[in-house]
What does this fold into?
Amino acid sequence: MPAGRHHSIPTPITLSEEDGVRYLHFGSVWVQGAMRIRRPDELVLDYVRQMMAWLLFLEPPRRVLQLGLGAGSLTRFTLRHCPASEVAVVDCSDDVIETARQWFALPTEEPRLRVVCDDAQAFLERSRPRGRWGVIQVDLYDMHARGPAIETAAFYELCRGALEEPGICVVNLFGRHASYRRNLSRLRRVFGGRLIEMPAGPAGNRVVLAFAGPPMQVAWHDLEQRARELQRATALPARVWVRALQQQLGSAACTA
It folds into this structure.
């Protein structure tokens, strides 16, 4: 099998429920997705909310690509809150896709949604010409959840090449594992150092935003205004993000 390829997710897929939330597991105790049963469009997990932090810096683009389906949380949220965006989702497991449709309210007749069963890297290799997607969200984990299932520099170069300009690649990493530093290094190299690391979540996830296109510099008061608008529209904790980033970066403006 070529390095960096990931073709199947081990079975069995299992579900659990607690306090009105349904959870997805890939044959282990690790949570791979969640849905509040009575409010399926709400984002339950902290790191999944952070994967929508690109909305602080970019208006919803024409096309969003999501690599890794899980419980479909990002897909449902994006379809609701980005009504002009088309969403393509790639997952290597038919079982995961069917589970998301049956148990996690993944739409089956939404004209803006395309779900593809494929290896994420192979999909990107076949999806040229370059510059097709405004946002790419990467959440590729297996049952061991020790680090991304695809994490090579070649994969990140494909993500960079597939972005429009301006565009943002959002990657879920795991800050408590050795994979974090090597992935951060590869992303920094591929994207020319233009990264923003979101604050660590309680489960150890670290979401990284990687920017393509002209250099960005946003005054903190403008970003705070954008966060207020975003929080009102989506209930995302955007103002908390901005305060944490300002404390973390400590500069006169947010740059990437």
